[in-house]
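Homework help board

Subject: predicted structure for assignment chain

Our instructor gave us this sequence and asked us to write out the predicted structure in token form, then describe one feature. I got the tokens but I'm not sure how to describe them. Can anyone check?
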Amino acid sequence: MRVVIAGAGSVGRSIARELLAHDHEVTLVDRQPSAMRVAQVADADWLLADACELPTLRDVRADECDVMVAATGDDKANLVISLLAKTEFGVPRTVARVNNPKNEWMFDAGWGVDVAVSTPRIMTAMVEEAVAVGDLVRIFTFHQSKADILELTLPEGSPLAGLRVGQIAWPTDTVLACIVRDTRPIAPSPDDTLEGRDELLFVTGREVDEKALEHLLTHGPASS
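My token output:
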């Protein structure tokens, strides 16, 4: 996979290192000479230029990349980069960093953004996930489909503990995607039995009734 990352700060460099470790081709672009820390990500291609300008995106062959990552510290720049990548170069996938949570509402398909990543939101979700046993937590929202990834850690003594996955009627458009038990991820089958302290990860559609899901998880299935 070929990835262009606009913004070679600590965030951009970290993303680049992870992608290179998985054998992807990476180009880093930044307009600040101070960001040209080539030795820190020596296997990437580097370009000193402004990714908000069309000639720069031509130079990095944006029309040939699979993913454009707008990871600068400027939300306006990240929106412009995403929009140009999508509309002028037909990049299949754009991922944009949201620096100020107040701007998150703009990071959608209208600005060419497929996936918006808000560091404060993710950090908040991780904190909530760590402390809120028994509470349903939204971890991530896919901006294109509006699907959510939700998490809940079953408390000890949960009415669902001891039930098989196949015995539980989940709400419409709700999929139990993974059970994490003692740090081990399990792909759930109908015969798997839930246990207290299991971490449940769900993928839900945009119309899902989260209150119904939360009621099911905390009170168990309704008796017939």
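Reply (TA_rk): Your tokens look well-formed. For the description, you could write something like this. The longest strand covers residues 174-181. That's the kind of observation they're looking for.
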